[in-house]
Specification:
The chain has ten helices and 27 strands. It has a five-stranded parallel sheet with strand order 3-2-1-7-20, with helices on one face. Strands 9-16-10-11-12 form a five-stranded parallel sheet. Strands 23-24-27-26-25 form a five-stranded antiparallel sheet. The structure holds flavin-adenine dinucleotide. Flavin-adenine dinucleotide binds next to α1, α8 and β23.
Length: about 400
């Protein structure tokens, strides 16, 4: 039986270990993670955890007994420092080396840092893991002023959580609108209104010049000389793939580690899954993407498990994502590239609507606000490549799923 080593005990790595056993792999299986925790889910960190509605123990995906019963060795608090592809072993930071027949990279991504003066001051925080969330949570106190740099999902979710805690919140966004990289213009306009109604100040088209403070941050300065006083700053300006090990080992990397439809890298004995991977999407003609989402991590974990045990590749999935802010649930299916028109269905002013992105009569993506039926219908349209009638899609008297031509 082949020996399997997984680097990274996060969502993808944890899911893969379980999948491998479920699919029938019986050989030695070791997961190595540098955090001191068993694999856990990150989405609640910016939501329930910050608000104090969940403790971090409940984030653990599977408990220690599960790994024991399934004979999965999970080494927490240990860092892999090198991969030797010729000898087929990995080296841990302490010097120990572990042999593998198949190696899986699941090292995720790390928050992008700002390279501006003052960025190293205390109380300037990023959010990726449990420890970050604990630091941030203790800094979020009622009445304190929070400056959030970056109006993406993490920034906006932190804004919503901080408002629930009674903080004064300002979001500074470099682009002309919120969610510029990750959602459509109607959605950005909608979220801007919601956040403003909730008392969040939003400043767009704004570049940071520096942070002010002696020891702790006391203000954010913009290039147009505006000064935003704050007690805490959160930087949420995207994440970069942790692909150093892969690059050092000579694996083909682009925006992350390049993989095929089985999540296999340019070395047939090595796979890469989750936020780290640069992967083809069969539903979009194998165009390459780096996706940062739980469904993506789970899909690739299934692909690898099947490839290793020799089962057929699972059916291609439509990428999807969700975000929770206040009482608003966003679900996105697909990616709205190359779309030539948008159809809005429902009522944005009532916080229940969907934006369908069409190319011709084909649905490329749907963004659904408090509207799970639109999410399900849109996802199905994308998967089946059905043609739809835009007028029927916009007509609330007709069910979304009946808009197919
Ligand atoms: P990770 O979960 O980051 O795991 C990678 C692990 O590898 C980490 O523990 C890392 O420390 C470890 N590691 C890295 N290098 C080494 C090394 N050399 N040696 C040992 N260990 C190493 N997705 C959604 O779909 N919906 C959401 O609402 C959502 N909300 C989110 C909110 C926040 C605040 C964050 C941070 C993410 C959110 N995501 C959400 C994204 C989702 O959590 C990620 O897509 C998912 O965690 C990716 O899993 P992964 O295993 O690739 O990476």
């Amino acid at each position: 039986e082949s020996k399997i080593v997984i680097i990274g005990a996060g969502h993808a790595g944890g899911a893969l270990a379980a999948q491998l056993r479920e699919q029938g792999h019986r050989g030695p299986l070791c997961v190595i993670g540098d955090e001191p925790y068993l694999p856990y889910q990150r989405p609640p960190l910016s939501k329930a955890v910050l608000k104090g509605a969940t403790d971090t123990e409940s984030l653990i995906l599977r408990n220690a007994a599960f790994y024991q019963e399934n004979d999965i060795e999970v080494r927490t608090g240990q860092t892999v420092s090198a991969i030797d592809r010729n000898a087929r072993h990995v080296t841990l930071a302490g010097g120990e080396s572990l042999p593998y027949d198949f190696l899986i990279l699941a090292t995720g991504a790390r928050p992008r840092q700002l390279a501006i003066p003052g960025a190293g001051l205390a109380n300037i925080l990023t959010l990726r893991g449990i420890d970050d969330a604990a630091r941030l949570k203790s800094a979020l106190q009622p009445g304190r002023r929070l400056a959030i740099v970056g109006g993406g999902y993490v920034g906006l979710e932190v804004a919503a959580s901080a408002r629930a805690l009674g903080m004064e919140v300002t979001v500074v966004e470099r682009e002309a609108r919120l969610l510029a990289r990750v959602a459509s213009e109607p959605l950005a306009t909608f979220y801007e209104r919601i956040h403003q109604q909730q008392g969040v100040q939003i400043i767009r088209n704004a570049n940071l010049s520096h942070f002010e403070g002696d020891d702790h941050v006391t203000a954010v300065h913009l290039e147009d000389d505006r000064r935003l006083a704050c007690d805490v700053a959160v930087v949420g300006v995207g994440a970069l793939p942790r692909d150093e090990l892969a690059r050092a080992a000579g694996l083909h990397c682009e925006n992350g580690v390049m993989v095929d439809q089985d999540a296999r890298t340019s070395d047939p004995a090595i796979f890469a899954i989750g936020d780290l991977s640069w992967r083809p999407l069969p539903v979009y003609g194998d165009r390459m993407f780096r996706l940062e989402s739980v469904p993506n991590a789970l899909e690739q974990a299934r692909q690898v498990a099947c490839a290793i045990v020799g089962k057929p590749r699972p059916a291609a999935e439509v990428p999807w994502f969700w975000s929770d802010q206040y009482d608003i649930k966003l679900q996105i299916a697909g990616l709205p590239f190359d779309a030539d028109r948008q159809v809005v269905r429902g009522a944005p002013e009532q916080s229940k609507f969907a934006v369908y992105h069409l190319r011709g009569e084909q649905v490329m993506a749907v963004e659904a606000i408090n509207s799970p039926l639109d999410f399900i219908a849109g996802k199905q349209f994308i998967l089946s490549q059905a043609l739809v009638c835009a007028d029927r899609l916009a007509n609330m008297a007709i069910k979304a799923k009946d808009a197919a031509l």
